[in-house]
Amino acid sequence: MKLQEWLVNGGAEGLDWLQLEDFPDTGRGVKTLRPLKSKDVVLTIPGSFLWTADVATSDPVIGTVIRSVEPPLSVEDILAVFLLFIKSCKTGYDGRRAHVELLPTSYTASIFFSDEELEICSGSSLYHLTQKLKQQIRDDYIQLLTKLFSKHPDLFPLESFTQDDYVWALCTIWSRGMDFQLPDRQFRCIAPFADMLNHSLDVELCHAYDPQLNRLQILAGKDYKIGEQVFINYGSVPNNRLLRLYGFILLDNPHDSYDLVLTTNSQAPLYSQKVALLESIGLHVNSTFSLKLKDPLPLNVLQYLRIQRLTSSEISTMPARHGAKDRVSARNEAEILKALDKACKDLLSGFGISLEELEEKTDSGAYQEGSNAWAAAHVSISEQKILKATLQKVKELLALVVCANCGKESNKRCSRCRKVVYCGADCQKSHYKEHKAFCKAASE
Ligand SMILES: C[S@@+](CC[C@H](N)C(=O)[O-])C[C@H]1O[C@@H](n2cnc3c(N)ncnc32)[C@H](O)[C@@H]1O
Question: Which superkingdom, per the lineage (predicted)?
Fold first, then answer.
């Protein structure tokens, strides 16, 4: 049975005017055979066709054993087992098998990069997360092997449930899964045929799951002419994530970010009070912050660090609801900015290849466009640019809290440029030679 036939017979709509096709930039995608107006319903897939954890756990053949695993499997692992099970079946499940047969046989996510390719972005969050992911996959596979596959070889023959097969299934889920926040739960699914749609930021977000009608719909995210490729928008995904989960990047991706991880040691003084303060402003003690070129130092990073470094007298005198939106004290502000300054410098020095060198290499075509090395280089360039912008912002703020000459906490601004502070006239005089050109430029 063909995928389209299975879907149409079961009530899917839209397949009459949609066709799979290979496109030069994106690879296989979907083209429209009729003009579409923005917001037209393009495709409707009834819920019964979706790959979901619920469908897997209620499957008459493997549902019971999947449900019996303790601790319960993650949604991702349930879907991976389900995909591999259908892939291994020789009979039955005709429609789902037709779908699996159309899935890519290999992927280009960063876990498949050679060591040499990955080294190009060493120091980046992509590099660290890719290494972590590889280890996580090995650990998770061993768990599945011991808790499920080796206990039921009749259902999960080991030759079809190898670690490579598991990685294939995970990459299928990462690159084709759709996530929806429903009122009562998070919902993850793979929607046959809708999963053939490629990503573009030039279209509106246009995919939705309706829990009442139990169906997934794709609307046109813009107007389309006959023969054009229909896209959906995967969301505000930065290149480091696109490469890790989907295996491609977008040039000049406006959503690029550096993921800054902040944590606090549970032995730190006043730990529980600080955790409570963080939670009162919606922050978790282990938080990841997206630094972006447009906003390289978000307020919530400053709030987190201000709270992290509060002294007991600052905590007791801080007005309720203050939320550390403004500086708490000169000492606190100087301390967090110095820490950030050092962190940015350390992170930047951790990159294996500098921004300048990578830019020269990409400009001169040293990495073939579209190759893994080229994609890794672009991710590193973007992350380093963001960190440099963060460092610049930190320096500007630091110049307003510590004396430009001696580094002591101060608040007397240069009366001309108002961009630096001094602790007194002596320091201002000693620093004048160094400050002169900056002061002139800054006050023009
Ligand atoms: C949901 S699938 C889309 C269908 C896929 N092209 C296929 O042939 O099965 C997502 C995958 O399509 C590719 N893709 C999607 N959008 C892309 C884009 N704008 N540029 C390049 N590749 C893209 C990536 O390989 C990604 O992992």
Answer: Eukaryota
